[in-house]
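Quiz preparation item.
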């Protein structure tokens, strides 16, 4: 059989355009539905719609171990696959920090970007005498036993860590004294606060919107860099003097051993999605706030988040 070398060369050249091959796959480390599946399907669709890839992105659901099964699969079997992206979130970073993936470590992949986030919030009941984050933190510092929080994650999980980060920022050293009740999801957590069983609730913006609109709670702070569009009356923790950003970001990681060129190419493609009208519409429809970090900037930020989570987790005894 005669092979046309010119055709082969042309095909190879076309595959290299843009730095990342177009036949991409996105692994959602969970069953259909939920945040990781949303990340893969929405980002994958928009990548194709805006011409960043020339074939639809294949979505593979790989549930197990809270993301651990997919993580192990990528590290063990796909470490140099430049066509692979994997959905991730703050839960991924927290579990890696707390060694929940059976010895797997964060440096075994590369975090390539996040382009949206569910903002962390701190709320109290509508009739609470506490009217600012400073009021709440002062009360906690002066009498730790008088203040309690409910959150939708278990003790040591992300909702719990939001409070601990604020406490540390306020100079509260004995963070083990902070009362935290982990319940089954944000709705149950906010019910605890509305019912007067806890002083406040720590959770995500999407969990409190209905309660804000009905006037059952007041939000003392949103844990973002800037105020959240549509909720402009809620001040950030930063503008109240607490240098804490805690958002449940929506993003991606890629295999560790892909080239720097492929890593940067994925970052550029993700930036293109973030800048698109299609993604802005998807965020508005799903209650996400702008949060864009890509490439090396995002990797450095995740490294810092994981280091802080390790420190806090050791202080409260989640890990040794």
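Solution:
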């Amino acid at each position: 059989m005669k092979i046309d070398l010119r055709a082969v060369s042309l095909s190879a050249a076309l595959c290299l355009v843009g730095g990342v091959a177009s036949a991409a796959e996105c692994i959602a480390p969970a069953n259909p539905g939920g945040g990781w599946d949303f990340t893969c399907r929405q980002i994958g669709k928009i990548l194709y719609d805006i011409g960043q890839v020339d074939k639809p992105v294949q979505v593979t659901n790989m549930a197990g171990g809270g993301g651990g099964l997919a993580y192990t699969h990528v590290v063990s079997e796909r470490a140099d696959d430049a066509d692979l992206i994997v959905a991730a979130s703050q839960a991924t970073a927290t579990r890696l920090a707390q060694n929940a993936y059976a010895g797997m470590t964060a440096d075994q992949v590369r975090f390539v970007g996040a382009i949206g986030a569910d903002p962390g919030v701190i709320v109290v009941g509508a009739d609470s005498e506490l009217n600012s984050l400073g009021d709440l933190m002062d009360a906690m510092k002066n009498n730790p036993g008088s203040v309690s929080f409910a959150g939708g994650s278990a003790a040591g999980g992300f909702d719990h860590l939001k409070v601990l980060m604020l406490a540390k920022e306020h100079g509260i050293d004995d963070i083990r004294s902070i009362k935290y009740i982990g319940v089954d999801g944000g709705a149950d957590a906010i019910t605890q606060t509305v019912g007067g069983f806890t002083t406040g609730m720590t959770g995500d913006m999407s969990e409190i919107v209905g309660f804000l609109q009905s006037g059952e709670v007041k939000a003392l702070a949103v844990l973002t860099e800037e105020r959240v569009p549509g909720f402009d009356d809620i001040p950030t923790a930063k503008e109240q003097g607490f240098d804490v950003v805690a958002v449940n970001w929506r993003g991606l990681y890629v295999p560790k051993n892909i080239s720097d060129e492929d890593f940067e190419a994925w970052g550029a493609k993700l930036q293109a999605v973030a800048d698109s009208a299609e993604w802005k519409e998807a965020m508005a429809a799903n209650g996400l706030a702008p949060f864009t970090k890509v490439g090396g900037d995002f990797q450095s930020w995740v490294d810092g988040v994981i280091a802080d989570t390790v420190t806090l987790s050791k202080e409260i005894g989640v890990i040794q």
